[in-house]
User: What shape does this take?
Amino acid sequence: MHKQALNLPPFAYKFKTMDGKAGFFDVFRRRYVVITPEEWVRQHLLHYLVAEKAFPMNLISVEKELLVEGLKRRYDAVVYDADFKPLLLVECKAPQVALTQEVFDQAARYNRLLNVPYILVSNGLQHLMAKVDHDAGRYIFAPEPLAFADLSAGA
Assistant: This one.
């Protein structure tokens, strides 16, 4: 099982073996999922956003399909605002994956379809959150992930 220490607080989860693989219950998708390094990061990050940054759990959508440049892709998570408009795109990578320009560009490609005002990219050790200035075509980075109220106020 992938239990690498992350730069995120631990959370309580229900463990289960699934076809010989370690899994845990995903409260966002309401089902058990196999624990991969990326899933380990995604679950920790989403629980952190809910517990520490007051993100409403019911406004988080996890792993939905997108058609990006003619190819089927899945975003890791999208957080909606109170009016159910996309507010934040979350892209997670395994801890051993460096957060390079290429990784951020992947999230930016997804955002061309979603048009969210904020992007959060994380490998569990490092977190990059940026406000998207669509008019100027630039990103304004925050020193740490912002609270839901701050995103809602600044969107």
The helical segments are 37-53, 101-114, 148-154. Residues 11 and 51 are 9 Å apart (CA to CA).
